[in-house]
Design brief:
6-stranded mixed β-sheet, 10 helices
């Protein structure tokens, strides 16, 4: 086929992937290439990229170098602390300061785990600067994590992502005056244990400066 030969030659000359070369030559649309790759490698992705926060690269740019780095990190975790032969646990992502990229890391890791097909939960426990509503495009109403910890939660607190079918999100809800104290209460640990029993993977975005914690599986 002359078109395939044309694409292959252009690919070699410009050091591109086959799909990228086809798009550059006007022989395929980027959406078609992404759809074909997602079917080949079983990676759900956001078809309407305009509705996805570009920060969520796993959904917006699933075959980018950044997305591949998150999948590699996921693989390392699955061979270590989150291996099948290890105790079930959640993954807490923390950092010393606001703006360190903690939510970027946590949200993309959660999305990467969800691409394995099992139900995955992202818990927004950053009660100082919650961002799950922006990253995942969900509602952050008063019925969220803080309501669950205070025993006032209603139905529908955990929301399903509209972009990734296996990803669920628990937003913060109402912002409390004492976020660290809430996370250090037994109720939070009990909630994590309950969620770990219900979901294949749980990723927690915690407040900055969580003393005595680090970014590891807990």
């Amino acid at each position: 086929d002359k078109q395939i030969e044309w694409i292959v030659n252009f690919q070699r000359e410009n050091d591109l992937r086959f799909g990228e070369a086809a798009v550059e030559l006007g022989l395929a649309r980027r959406e078609d290439v992404l759809w074909a790759l997602s079917q080949q490698f079983h990676y759900p992705y956001a078809i309407d990229e305009k509705q996805v926060n570009p920060e969520l690269v796993i959904a917006a740019s699933p075959f980018s170098d950044e997305a591949e780095a998150f999948r590699e990190l996921r693989s390392q975790l699955l061979m270590g602390a989150m291996a099948p032969d290890q105790p079930r646990r959640a993954l807490a992502v923390v950092s010393p300061d606001v703006g360190d990229g903690k939510t970027y890391l946590a949200s993309n890791l959660a999305a990467a785990f969800s691409q394995l097909g099992g139900p995955t939960l992202f818990i927004d426990a950053d009660m100082r600067t919650p961002r799950s509503q922006d990253v995942f495009g969900i509602a952050n109403n008063r019925s969220g994590l803080t309501a669950m910890l205070s025993g006032r939660a209603e139905d529908g607190v955990v929301q399903r992502s509209s972009q990734l079918p296996s990803l669920f999100v628990l937003p913060v809800g109402a912002i409390p005056p004492n976020p660290l104290e809430l996370i250090q209460r037994p109720a939070f640990s009990l909630l994590i244990q309950e969620m770990v029993s219900k979901f294949d993977h749980v990723v927690v975005d915690t407040p900055a400066s969580t003393h005595g914690a680090d970014a590891r599986a807990i």
